[in-house]
Structures are given as C-alpha cells and as structure tokens.
Design goal:
Layout: H1 4-11, E1 17-22, H2 28-35, E2 39-46, H3 49-61, E3 68-72, E4 87-93, H4 95-104, E5 114-119, H5 123-132, E6 136-145, E7 148-156, H6 165-170, H7 181-203, H8 209-226
Parallel strand pairs: 1-2, 1-4, 2-3, 4-5
Antiparallel strand pairs: 5-7, 6-7
Bound molecules: S-adenosylmethionine.
S-adenosylmethionine is lined by residues 6, 22-25, 45-48, 51, 74-75, 91-93, 97, 101.
Keywords: Methyltransferase, Transferase
GO molecular function: tRNA (adenine(22)-N1)-methyltransferase activity
InterPro entries: SAM-dependent_MTases_sf, TrmK
Length: 230
Amino acid sequence: KLSDRLQTVASFVKPNSRIADIGSDHAYLPVFLARNEQIQFAIAGEVAKGPHENATHEILQQDVKNLVSSRLGNGLDVVTAEDQINTISIAGMGGTLISQILERGKNKLQGVSNLILQPNVGENGVRKWLMQNNYRITAERILKEDHHIYEIIVAENKPAPTYSEKELLFGPKLLQILPNAIFQEKWLAELQRIKNAIAQMKQAQVIPKKRISKLKHKADLIKEVLDFED
Ligand code: SAM
C-alpha cells in the first residue's frame, strides 16, 4: 500500500498524464499510477544505482514495464523530447535540492504543465523558484504521517502572482485553510525551535545580531499567522 504522502501526490496527477518522477527510489509512485490506469507513460528517474535497481525490480515485479521506464541519471537528464512529459513529480527530498533539479533541468520544462512537489524541508525556496519561473501554485496540502509533517505543492505553468513573504513561507493555499491542526502543530514546533536557538545563542554569549533578528522576524510572522500573542 502506498503511503498517505505519496497517495496525496498521486491524487494530483491528471488522467492520462505523461509523468517523470524524479528521485523515484522504489518507483512506488509511478507503479501505483500505472496500476491505477491513471497515466499514459511514466519515467522513474534515479541518480543512485541502488535505488535505480529497486525501481527496475519493482516495475518488473508489478508488471508495468510497458508503462513505466526506469532510468539512471541526474535530475531531468533522464527526460527526452520524445517522452512528451507533461507532469513532473519530485518527492521526499529537501526543497533546495528540488529547486536545484528544476533549475538545472529548465530546458526540459517546455511542455511540462504540471509540477507536483513534496519538499521535506525548505518549502519557501521551492515556492520562490516556482514564482520566478512562471509556475502558479494551484493547490497545497499538509499532512502528518509517522510523526512527520509533509507539505505538497502543486503548480501549473501559468503566470504566477507575486507571492508575499508570508505566502512564500506558509504557502498561499495553506493560508486559506486556516485554522488547521497540522499546520498549527508544524509552526508551533518551529516557533519553539526558534526560541530555543535564540536562548542557546544568548547563553553561549554568541550574539550574531543579524541571525537573531532574522529569527525574531520569522517568529513574529508565525505568531501573526497562528493568531496569538505572547
Ligand atoms: N520519491 C520517493 C518518495 O518520496 O518516497 C523517494 C524519496 S528518496 C528519500 C530520495 C531519492 O532521490 C533518493 O533515492 C535519491 O537517490 C534520489 N535523488 C537525489 N538527488 C537526485 C537527483 N539529482 N536526481 C535524481 N534522483 C535524485
């Protein structure tokens, strides 16, 4: 059974898509999509040999090799024009890496109308990249599984509005579903981390003023969004 996290990613894949799942590891997502008859074609891209072998094995075992192609390569290098990919998913890695993969593979994005991204951290950097590269955020989800909180960002290749600092940090679509218990839990934990970090720096008598004022600013944004005073 697919994790709730990957099932949520899958729920945003439009019928008959041609999808490249980058950093696919076991290829669970494309295999699920193929078995569900949700796609026309998928690439399971992997940069590492072990995960690539896992993907190849899973695709054979689940009998979907007519629909899912297992490819070894860095980021979007595995995508060619003949594949006619219109959707890219990248899940389960840091936001910085996701943005780097998209940036490095920009020339492969021409026909790609849909991006489904699930950064483990650093969501704001991903949103910034989307905004700067003509992808508009059309949906976002936040969910908790196995004690982790995950965000999923869905974008379409359309002119994007200028997102505010707050929208980049918290998510323009997630801000619209508040109050939300998981969102609250995530940002309360982040607030606590900021408080601890500042306290530790003060205790160690290293007081990098710039860093502290940045952290305080972030804490203020969190308090504003969670709508409380302290
Ligand atoms: N996408 C799956 C998921 O969400 O469950 C697997 C996530 S796994 C934690 C991250 C995978 O990304 C690893 O298998 C790693 O080898 C792969 N990866 C990291 N950088 C990559 C890159 N530049 N190109 C392709 N794959 C990459």
